[in-house]
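Q: What would this chain look like folded?
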Amino acid sequence: MKNIIIGAGFSACITKSLMRENSKIIGSSNTDYIKGYIRRKNLEFNKLYQKKTYSFGSLEYKLDKATFQDRVVLGGNSDIWGGKINLKYIPKKILNFLKKKIIFKKLSFRETGTISNKKDIYQMQNKKGEIITSSDFSYKITNDHLIDFKVKNKKLFLNFTNRKIITKNVFLCVGVIQLLDLLYRSNFLKENDIIELSEFKSDFKLRTIYSKMNNNFTIQRFIFSRAIGHYFSIQYFAKYLKLLNFIPLCIDQNFYTKKNKIKLRVKNGIIINNYSKNNEIFGKSTHFCHLKINKIDINKFLSKISPGLKGIGMAFIDQKVPGPISNDIILDSFKKIK
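A: My prediction, written as structure tokens:
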């Protein structure tokens, strides 16, 4: 294969959709069978109505004032997310192409159970009216785990659990945690390296459905019944949830224009904080991005390893506007594939 896509979530499937050349997706459904990995319960994030997943990897995490998630499963975070996208920044040509795979539903309390103060924010759905997941793209995903890789003679040598592959182009469509694990096992992330991430500040507020929304920041408002469904990862606005629509309460998810930043360090195989105590808890938005290693942007970091090594997903973008991050991922994927 000329192009190997590593991952099994939204980023991987978008990359496959936009890529015209021959490509293969390889993703991991679970890594508990790999000898030498450790389980990280503090990184596990599960919801009642979705398959339980575990976090296994090479690095431990002992952090203060920070929360991270690691979902090693076919589907990734697309199994539990809200599916929101800001169409304001998607060119018409790309949007029309994506409409072959995705239904872009206008937000309303009646149809999606959510509204926003930004009119260009929509929800991505499948034909059944469910929030879209990677399985809706109907791509064959080979279940295997990339242990490590090396570069020799301008070629990438990929060492999986069940196979070895030599290729020139690899698209790493993995989350931040699994990316750091992979770089550490491949000896590109080393002891005492400094890791930086950023996110837009965010929080949740209880309101009434009549509360006025502040246009100075981005708000995604969940009617109370839909907020309950989202909490349990019910990925559509079910009729039995709508029975609770008489409750005039809502949950506002607010994304502010100011950013949180965090610095971490690799110490004896453990990721620890590398900054003084902060009152803000990093990671609440779940949109932590703009990864840097030793002050080098992750995209430049990978290109120094090999020009054929590219990354697509939250780690690889510097989000410019608070709110949904899927639109940034799509644009970044299109740019790198082109």
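The longest strand covers residues 249-267.
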